[in-house]
Amino acid sequence: MTPVPEEVPCLLMRGGTSKGAYFLAGDLPAEPALRDELLLRIMGSPDERQIDGLGGAHPLTSKVAVVSPSADPRADVDYLFLQVAVDQPEVSDRQNCGNILAGIGPFAVERRLVAAGEEETSVRIRMVNTGDHATATFPTPGGRVRYTGNAEISGVPGTAAPVVIEFPPSANPLLPTGHVRDEIDGVPVTCVDNGMPTVLIEAASLKITGYESPAELEADEELTGRLRTIRLEAGRLMGLGDVTNATVPKLSLLAPPRDGGAVTTRTFIPVRCHTSIGVLGAASVAAGLRIDGSVGAGLAELDAGGDRVRIEHPTGFLDIESSLDATPDGLPRARRTAVVRTARKIFDGTVFPRSAETAPLPPRTQGGQR
């Protein structure tokens, strides 16, 4: 059995609109149960404030990336994303995170897993959670990662260097239920998977506007109960099984755009309402809007002459480059998906986990490393 370290090298980074602890796989225990128990102590869970760890008391700031060299000839590094619950002793690997993904390329260069180019560097990434791939390209003048720049993304103050992330077409069906529309609990939905299993729901069908704040939506007990029912059934229809304790699928409530975008969104991840929107969730929304007859297609305002889809969210917008074609049997599939994000190194050093003797509960791992 691998010894559990009492101190661990760690790079804390902001990736997109999330923040997380980035680790080399070799610095953590190889056994998932031991690794996850250690990460709970590092992040300070379970505790709603995460006062005794690195976590920021919200799912968007309680995230972990585990990175290693890849044996896949199509990738330079493997990236395992782990969502550490805030107030529960749970660690889940049942989803990807496209925001934390934005920091993987820079981290790989910082840890010398990939040699930096003289002007820019492209890092090919295998997302272990699903087996999907992405390529991140970012500036490295003089062979060092540059974090400063003029790229601006909603939900992050200031500007930073751009990280361009390109996603090849996924082998998974874009419509995992096989239908453009399904009906759950009397509500029309479209279930899409373009990197993140996502359920598209028109906000008006739930008797809300879709412009409410995340706090208002979370406080609406009737709404959240209805969404839970929809999510559980959607998980079954999408082939995900019982998703009671899972973080997927996400639910994205759609309304007509207000600020020049294609659509307004309010996304549940899955219980809390996202203050913006995840990259892969936005990729699934953008692809879903382009499917004829889908939920949201009729209310979205799409640019007929280009691939860009601007997804409005509670703190601004996210631009996705999205285009579709068809499979040989005529089903829609993603042809191209790309996004510009930013990332920043916050600190690089050693983290000291809370003592195992003071940890309140053993962890419950959701999924298991794949």
From TrEMBL:
InterPro entries: OMA_tautomer-like, PrpF-like. The keyword Cytoplasm does not apply. It comes from the Bacteria. SUPFAM superfamilies: Diaminopimelate epimerase-like (SSF54506). Keywords: Isomerase. Gene3D superfamilies: Diaminopimelate Epimerase, Chain A, domain 1 (3.10.310.10). It holds the Pfam family PrpF. The keyword Isomerase applies. PANTHER family: ACONITATE ISOMERASE-RELATED (PTHR43709), ISOMERASE YBHH-RELATED (PTHR43709:SF3). Belongs to the PrpF family. This is 4-oxalomesaconate tautomerase.
